[in-house]
Amino acid sequence: MNTLEPGHLRGQGGVAEDDVRTACEPEALKRAFLDHLLYTQGKTLEIASHNDIYLAVAYTVRDRLLRRWSHTSSRHKRHGTRTVAYLSAEFLIGPSLGNNLLNLDITDALRETLARLGIDLDELVRREVEPGLGNGGLGRLAACFMDSLATGEIPAIGYGIYYEYGIFFQTVVDGWQVENTDKWLRFGNPWAIHHPEWGVEVKLGGYTEHYTDDVGRFRVRWVPEKTVWGTPFDTPVAGYKVSTVNTLRLWRAEATEEFDFSVFNRGDYLGAVNKKVTSENLTKVLYPNDESHQGKELRLEQQYFFVACALRDMLRILEHRGLPVTEFPRAFAVQLNDTHPAIGVAELMRLLIDEYLVPWEQAWEATRATFAYTNHTLLPEALERWPLELFKSVLPRHLEIIYEINRRFLNEARIRFFGDESRVFRLSLIDESGERYVRMAHLACVGSHAINGVAELHSTLIKEQLLPDFYAMWPEKFDSVTNGVTPRRWVVLSNPGLAALATEALGDEHWIRDWPRIAGLEKHADDAAFIERWQRVKHTNKRSLAALIRDETGVVVNPDSLFDVLVKRIHEYKRQHLAVLHIVTRYHRLKTQRATDMVPRTFIFGGKAAPGYVRAKLMIKLITAVADVVNSDPEVRDLLKVVFLPNFSVSKGQCIYPAAELSEQISLAGKEASGTGNMKFAMNGALTIGTMDGANIEICQEVGAENFFAFGMSADEAQRLLRSGYYPRDLYRDDAELRAAIDLIRGGFFSRGDAGLFEPLTNDLLNEDRYMLLADYASYVECQDRVDAAYRDARQWSRMAVLNCARSGRFSSDRSIAEYARRMWHTSALPDTGHGG
Ligand SMILES: *Cc1c(COP(=O)(O)O)cnc(C)c1O
Predict the structure, then answer these.
(1) Which is the catalytic residue, given 439, 586, 608, 680?
(2) Is 542 annotated as catalytic?
């Protein structure tokens, strides 16, 4: 396929047609690849390793990004439009090669070129190791947003941390999760470019001095205990078939000086080296906790480090554009992805008042006009608060600034809520109900002009339950932007069969950048020939996943069985153990009722547990223990298989979501803010079995209740039941199937008679059951029976699957980004018109 007609090249804006070096036709690609192999890797084709070839290919692709990248930045500079700075402690971008090829539209050309050299491009794409710079949904959202920003040609920079060790690599040994370090940089990262010349110094610790300067002004000097040096690694983020290439700028910490010479000269060589090592520890490792907060000093330092680097960098860009510091809010819209970067509010204030001598009121106005805050969770254990003493020891000047912000804010609140001191107490940035803490969500709210939740239910609960006092004070600040995922990675790259079918059925590829057009599939939902092709695509995807499962676990699964999938972080609120209760119930039915008319199912689990989250690790053990028994019981035959696929990641997801037929979204209603996995499944034509939680509600609305398996209590009902007194043991007593399932587990049936093994789990279910599994159990099992009935009619099932995909138009991150841009950032696209490079 020739994708290089002149019109297309012109569309790449400023890429001169005579620029042969980065041209995209086979001859130029071949030349570039062989050059990189020899002159970058120092190898000839005969002796090149797999990694040499991968790197040479990656550099060849990167060259083609770089030209567009430099055009984009000069265009942004020239037009001076507002740039989005997306601040996130995590970016889970996944493998880059396939995505860049897709967006540059050179997949076919490069595949052909390499094939002639005996190299399989698809194999290089498949084997690429991904940077695991995030835990799960939050980091993956940031990556989808970067893709949509670039595709929408909105000027944007993603700011974060260049962790040396990403999220651990999970293996399963004897059924238990084992964590292995993820040395993702071991063989080099060809996508990022290090820019030490843009390094910045970051202060930490120490104390402040107050003084009066020469002209009689009150001034504050921060005397730090130590300083570290931050340098950026820039990764180009190409939009889909547009000339815009934005930047993901991740910061690494280094020692300010290679050695501390004062210590060195005293003869303490090891001490000097140690100080260097300590500085570099700052960005060594990603905290592997998802949806839980640990008040660790290093974590606070990481957060401040990358935010300080980011704001300094924005000031450098401002200066480079010749603009005064007061233009900051017009030049940048800074989005806080959760509270991890919320310290930015205090840091921008510090920069403006202490370093640029801007008066407080003006600085505060600029700060609020700059920041917007996205809340991601209602779980109390995930809300960040820092013990005051710890905070002061790391950021003494910021604590002073926070006190001053708080003083002014609470005075405003006292006037607004006259006589209501208890409300003022609740609003305070400092939690003084026991040990004192700095409340980061409150800092983010006060310092932002917009606050949003990530799905409609979540945004409502923020207003009513999480931050009602802030809502009473500033109702106009609160907004809701439902999450989305990019159809480029999650359909085009992951599910090429579906992509080809969609393009053929819709007559063009516009759906790739305009996902709502996928609605055009709906009119084919009753077309027998289309349905047959749809089923073939799904079956091919299921066979690929079956092969992956066999390779990784040794378990052979039947691609004709129903693929029932639950992949996400392992967490009690996500209730993987509710799915286990259902599986055990099925098993019990098979053993006691000879229920041979059961629909054959393969239950596929995946997900990591935080290393310190003992209960979640026990949930993994429970899944694998049930799998061992069920899979080896000859009586069960093909009717029931259970698989735990280790190391769930973006790469694994790309194989899993397209193969799924049933998407398990079974969190307790009111606990999952949005979810994005649910959207990936729906786009790929899986039906959802889910609670009315997060974005499940919106998915159900869109696809229609008749194409969605809803069960369980609503968030309201769950809260009411909890308030009126929840007695899980009564449910256990009164439901024979539930009792049988729990008794099998706690009797040691799945643990070779070791009745104690799962007791922490089963005791909790019987006594507290915070996530109310037992309350939803009967409804869930009944709903699963309806799934069986529906699956028996393959034609009707596929029809529903097509409708799920066709009606998922709302769940593209392109739509989310358009909403942020219009309502929160007040920024617009800066497309390349192709005139003047
Ligand atoms: C999409 C995704 C998630 C989020 O899944 P949820 O089901 O929304 O929790 C987590 N991890 C990876 C690797 C993902 O791709």
Answers:
(1) 680
(2) no
